[in-house]
Amino acid sequence: MTTSVITAPSPPSRPAASHEALKLAALLHQPRKGHMAVQPDQAKRWGTIGFMITIHILSIVALLPQFWSWQAVSALTILYWVTACLGVTIGYHRLLSHRSFRVPTWLERFFATCGALSCQHGPIDWVGLHRHHHKFSDTDADHHNSHRGFWWSHMGWMFQPIPAMQAVPRLSGDLVSDPYYRWLNTNFLLLQLPLGLLLFWIGSATGVGGWAMVLWGIPLRLVLVYHVTWLVNSATHCWGTVAYDSGDASRNNKWVAALTFGEGWHNNHHAFPHSARHGLQPGQIDLTWQHIRLMRALGLASQIRLPVAS
Q1: pLDDT at position 5 over 60
Q2: How high is the pLDDT of residue 7?
Q3: Per-residue exposure over 2-30, b if at least 16 CB sit within 10 Å of its own CB, e if not
Q4: Cα separation of 146 and 250, whole Å?
Q5: 3-state SS assignment for residue 3
Q6: What residues have CB less than 8 Å from 142, skipping those under 6 apart?
């Protein structure tokens, strides 16, 4: 097992003016040689809007008294951990987007599959958009630029055309080369079908009701994971403390960190984006880092990257 050290760098360099950021973004948005350009969305992304409305309505239905049970709560809790922590935080974010540590291929694909269960795009699109965000954080080229307001950075950006999608092939080429990730990127929504069947069978077999387990395990869980994940884009760019001059509006927010297994230490992350550990100051609990430490102890995680003071 190997732990590498990142010497504390200067604050990330970003274009000083909006037109500089947009000019650089325009270059990234050009299709790679041999690739076709991503077709732009329509004026409104009605498919995304319709999906979000439906999933939020179903999450409210799940809270009706007839669907309540401790088994349903347990299913929600376990799947929240699997998709938010193992999938989005460990898999999509610290492992695939930033390569802050390494694991065997089978385990990497497991984490990516957990991430796909969150229905936040497949790994190629998620990673490409996230790397784009770091490159242009809080400039006009940033697709969820927090200077455009809380609603926009939280979820409003998803309902409009996303020019940053044009840059995804350039920014996630390491994942595009993997056929499993290409399949997962196209078919991530289909993963809810076997999960739904499993939940329905468990609910029917235990007598709590199949639909109760499905409603708590899919729409209610998705809405919870969505909004908690989006708080990292919105709340941690609005409220909290600043430990480092990261060149953007990122902040450390302890209540977002509590909900996101440590992702709320966002100013630390933007200062040291390739660090496997985000909770860098005393008292900053980072549960994702504890998962990585456990994998290191088991011999499953290596090449762990951490910052040190220069």
Answers
A1: no
A2: 47
A3: eeeeeeeeeebebbeeeeebbebbeebbe
A4: 9
A5: strand
A6: 21, 132, 133, 136
